[in-house]
Amino acid sequence: MTTCYFDRNVFDQIDRKRDVTDGDLIVLRKAIRDDQLSVLVSFETVQETSYAKKDTALRGLRLMQELARAEFPIKPHDELLRDDITAFAQGKENQSPFLFGKFQIQTVIDDVENPSPEVLSLIEDDKREKIFLNEKLARYVDDERRILGDERPRPFARYWDLRSTFYAEGFAYFAGHLDQAKELGIDRLLQLRSVRLTVGAFLSLLYSILIEGHVVQNGTSRDIQHVAPMSAADIIVTDDRELRRLIGRVPLENLVVITLPELIAFLRGEIALNLA
What we know:
Layout: E1 2-6, H1 8-16, H2 22-33, E2 37-40, H3 43-50, H4 54-67, H5 77-89, H6 105-113, H7 117-148, H8 156-174, H9 178-184, H10 186-189, H11 193-210, H12 220-223, H13 227-230, E3 235-237, H14 241-248, E4 256-258, H15 260-267
Parallel strand pairs: 1-2, 1-3, 3-4
Helix pairs in contact: 1-4, 4-6, 8-9, 8-11
């Protein structure tokens, strides 16, 4: 069975019938029903959807409940990375990326329908978190600009070679396993799909800002938090063109990043995808 990560905007796209027809959605639902396709969502996707306007949130959450393995969403990005790095450092197999037994989407729907003071407080915390992430990204950009100086490594592959080890070591440090990771080899750590995709996406964002001169879009730094959970799927589906561009150039084998219409075309047998 092919696993497919749906970004939050894909559920909005389905809800609004944007660039998809009723016939397309019949094909999608049949593939899910016939166990040809398993749609995955992340904890962050469910969380962000619940913070939208009430009607929009409820429609999105119910679509997840219908289409996705929403009873077992992918772990939060920081937990997933920490668990993968810990398993690597201890020489163990990676744990499951899912939140087994820890989550029910119906509970989230109930909270949206009847928001408690605690839920309203979480929404305000989320708004502050977005501001914090934008400020944090600005600091990273300033630090990276100082480190690079006059050097502007091109193409992206050269920038990856230059800086990927540094950021992989940073993830190992925050997971509490830097010494073990160095002993085992940071190059081996970078072979972990979750680590490689996260480091690559972040470097791609920095490269876009510092080397290509792009202006970062509001919310892009938050989008990068979805990347580690995306690594749990065979196919990543997003309606965000900039996000597809950023993660599409990460040097990772069998990385497939497509739009929803392209997924439908794949399910119809009209195009092939490199899923080997």
